[in-house]
Amino acid sequence: MKIHPRIVKLKVRLAVAGKDMHHLSELDSVLGSFATYARLKGRYDDDWIDRLNHLYTTIILIIFTIVVSTKQYVGEPIHCWCPAQFEESHVEYTNNVCWVSNTFWVHFRDHPPRNWNLPYDSEIQYYQWVPMILLFQALLFKVPCILWRILTASAGVNLDKIVTLAAETAYVAPDDRDRTIKHIVRYMDRWIENAREYRSGCFIRLRQQISKYCCIVWGKRYGNYLVTLYMFIKLLYLSNAVGQLFILNEFLGTNFNVYGFEVMDHLARGESWSESPRFPRITHCFFKIRQMTNVHDYTVQCVLPINLFNEKIFIFIWFWLVFVATLSTFNFLIWVYTMIFRQHRLRYLKKFLRINDCYKSEFDKKMAVKFCEQYLRQDGIFVLRLVGKNANDVLVSELILQLWNHYRNKPLFRHANQISDDNSNV
Question: Membrane spanning segments where (predicted)?
Answer without folding.
Answer: 52-69, 126-151, 227-247, 313-341
